[in-house]
Amino acid sequence: MALDLKRIPALAEQWAGKSPAELVATAIKEYGPDVAISFSGAEDVVLVDMASKVGGKFTVFSLDTGRLHPETYQFLEKVREHYGLPIRTYFPEPEAVQQLVEAKGLYSFYRDGHKECCGTRKVEPLQRALKPLAAWITGQRRDQSPGTRAAVPVVQLDPTFGSDAHPLVKFNPLANWTSQQVWTYIRTNNVPYNALHDRGFVSIGCEPCTRAVRPGEHERAGRWWWEEETMKECGLHAGNLAQAS
Q1: Bigger pLDDT: 243 or 121?
Q2: Angle in degrees, CA 177, 180, 185, rounded to 5
Q3: Hey, which residues are catalytic here?
Q4: Residue 58's CATH number
């Protein structure tokens, strides 16, 4: 089975009141085994927990940029063991990383912005991860980023990585949840989480580009903190920028 692509905008409105677990179940029912959860943080492990309870055929993948925190690697292994699920890991192309580092050094993003480095270390590996899929499930929430995620629907045709030749459906089951709801679920269901969260890190990316959030700051203030506050996307959800502009 698969959704009628022409009906997806209408389904997004119709399903806006569905629970995240129901949306995860729908994604797996309609697209398993060609559906995957993109996994990196607290929201994503909630989706993994829901999917493991739903059952059915799905995969989990993660992007290893080579610059993650040690705690993030420990978290990935903890999730793998807790759920007994393999996590497909996609790495950047070594030659592309080598060329970037030789040309600009290890910290060019502080000077030139993060898009070039993220394009090499995250976006290209994501393209490979998504290529065999018909749908993917993300942990995006509307309140995560002030300028780019406020209109994220619960289901959509992927505007960035899909095409007419290869339409890709993108499920965002947590679109209507708040951070508090995510953490209530984690604690109620004993879901594993990244130890950095206990040290003030809210949104966690690569080690050089993530810091703890100060009191009163928005949760994504710790990501690429040297850049403009409201337009922080690394390219994985670049379609949000197009919608926001």
Answers
A1: 121
A2: 80
A3: 234
A4: 3.40.50.620
DSSP state of 91: -
Prior bond to 33 cis, omega within 30? yes
Domains in the chain: how many in total?
1
Tell the burial category of 135 from Cβ atoms under 10 Å away from its Cβ (0-12, 13-18, 19+): buried
Q: What is the pLDDT of residue 147?
A: 61
Mean pLDDT for the stretch of residues 172-182: 95
Tally of residues, the chain: 245
Q: Which residue type occupies 74? A: Q
The predicted structure's pLDDT at residue 244: 41
The pTM assigned to this predicted structure is 0.90
Host domain of residue 137: 5-244
Task: Give the percent of the chain with pLDDT over 70.
Answer: 91
The bridge status of strand 169-171 relative to strand 155-157 is antiparallel
Burial classification of residue 195, based on how many CB atoms lie within 10 Å of its CB (0-12 exposed, 13-18 middle, 19 or more buried) = middle
Query: Which region holds residue 66: left if phi is over 0, alpha if psi is between -120 and 50, else beta?
Result: left
